[in-house]
Specification:
There is one protein chain. 8% of the residues lie in helices and 52% in strands. By secondary structure, it is mainly beta. The chain has a single domain, classed as Porin. The strands form two sheets. An eight-stranded antiparallel β-barrel has the order 1-3-4-6-7-9-10-13. A three-stranded antiparallel β-sheet has the order 8-11-12, with no helix packed on it.
Length: 214
């Protein structure tokens, strides 16, 4: 019995000696030790994160509405507030004026300013010792439309948003970000003074950028 205890003690000592020294700065998501400086393990007093993305917006241009909106790219800004390590709210905003055309004839209807504002509630999946921090989001979008031509008139739109993305931690505060949103944008539109019909734009928004956590 004494020999067994001696061997066990020696083995435990060897394992403890060989174990790597975990540094607090290497924490990615929620890895030990508890005193880690990782933001999502121990949120600081200011749990804010901001991101800037380059986004490509791909409208679906359904058969309704009679208007096609071109694909377009622009900069998107967002701010996130973390209620806990896993739960956050994100507000994103962007603006652009893609060209529009009449479906079928292809006649130009001028540019359409689109200002989509999106609020999503996100759940972040945290994996110990892994710099990838994927998330899912669900929320609501409000889009404001303004046209440069009297040929076309858009109303504002409110609809749901589905989101998937991931942050990749580069350092204590800096992240890379990939993000995909599906926005159910359904404004009423009138062409050349005709009756208003619902235009199912339903764009996909693909984004890549950087983030900073305070």
């Amino acid at each position: 019995m004494k020999k067994a205890l001696l061997y066990f003690s020696l083995a435990a000592g060897l394992i403890a000696t060989a174990a790597p020294d975990v540094q607090a700065d290497t924490c990615y998501s929620c890895s030990p030790p508890p005193q880690s400086s990782c933001f999502l393990c121990n949120p600081p007093p200011n749990p804010w994160m901001i991101r800037e993305r380059f986004v490509n917006i791909d409208p679906s241009n359904s058969d309704q509405g009679g208007v096609d909106i071109d694909h377009y790219s622009m900069i998107e800004l967002d701010a996130s507030y973390f209620f806990s390590r896993n739960i956050s709210a994100e507000f994103s905003l962007t603006a652009e004026d893609p060209s529009s055309s009449a479906r079928g004839s292809g006649a130009s209807l001028g540019n359409v300013w689109i200002i989509p504002a999106t609020l999503t509630l996100q759940y972040h999946f945290l994996f110990p010792n892994n710099p990838f921090q994927p998330y899912l989001g669900l929320g609501i979008n409000y889009s404001y439309f303004s046209t440069s031509s009297n040929c076309i008139n858009y109303d504002s739109s409110i609809g749901p948003v589905y989101q998937i993305g991931t942050d990749f931690q580069l350092s204590r505060n800096w992240f890379l970000n990939l993000d995909i949103k599906k926005v159910y944008m359904r404004p009423d539109v009138s062409v050349n003074g005709g009756p208003k019909v619902t235009d199912d734009i339903y764009p996909w928004i693909f984004g890549a950028g950087v983030g900073y956590k305070f």
